[in-house]
Amino acid sequence: MLSILLCYTYPNSVLVQKVSVETKELKKEIPYPSSSALIIRFLISASLPFNLFPAVKMMHMTFYWGKTVTILIDSWRTDSWLSYLLSLFALFLASAFYQFLEDRRIRFKLLSRSKSSSVEAPLLGAASVWPSAAKAIAAALFGVNSAVGYLLMLAVMSFNGGVFLAVVIGFALGYYAFRSGAEEDLIALDKSCGCS
């Protein structure tokens, strides 16, 4: 079965072409490589002293500097300096937005715990908020904030130095702009995620 998977995944390899002659009719039964084929491909390529599969692209495992980077999805690739700088600016804004959302979440949590009957929700204006609605809004803010934080973490995992610096500087300046007030010292709240 290993030879059949290798036959389908890599038909241009010399070793695999010999196997594909013997199993030509079985090749049609496997329309797409399965996840086990990808795992087997990795295990075999990692154990051989030469590159049996030259078409396999590996991601960077150390920090590198350069304008060519793939951020989050394959269609978000930067090839020019302009696209690279715009992507860094977008990541900077997203990390500052993360701090803004965290500030709104903390303020909403403090306001919903107050004893007054009318609570000013920071995102909704003045409204009378029932305890269950306040919990739902706080949970929604927490979910959006966590999603933004984890997407920024995945962007940093591209191991591009510029992406790393843009996200860290965005976190720092966002914290300075939105969360470094006097009320931050008076409260101790749970962290939404380990991203900041």
From TrEMBL:
UniProt superkingdom: Eukaryota
Single GO molecular function: copper ion transmembrane transporter activity
InterPro entries registered for this protein in UniProt: Cop_transporter
Family named by the database record: Belongs to the copper transporter (Ctr) (TC 1.A.56) family. SLC31A subfamily.
Transmembrane segments: 38-56, 81-101, 122-144, 150-178
Subcellular location per the Swiss-Prot or TrEMBL entry: Membrane
Protein name: Copper transport protein
UniProt keyword terms in alphabetical order: Copper, Copper transport, Ion transport, Membrane, Transmembrane, Transmembrane helix, Transport
GO cellular component: plasma membrane
Protein's organism: Vanilla planifolia
Membrane topology: Multi-pass membrane protein
